[in-house]
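Running this now, will post back.
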Amino acid sequence: MLLLTKEALISIKFLMVKKFTTMTKLKITHIKSKIGSTERQKRTLKALGFKKLNSSVEVEATPQVLGMINKVKHLISSEEI
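Update: finished.
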């Protein structure tokens, strides 16, 4: 069993936070209609910031946004900036 000191835990948490502060930007384009999609997918597109077809948004590549992109990957295209 591995026991860590309080200082070691604090440094690990700091490294984890630092990892997510320098995220890359993604350019996401809505390329396919949301007609026929589930209500959850429609709400995910709205949460990503899309208002109409062929619109593009720039977002930070956080784990939450990457999960949202994964849910609607068949309706969008993404590229790293």
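The domain at 23-80 is CATH 3.30.1390.20 (Ribosomal Protein L30; Chain: A,). More later if anyone needs it.
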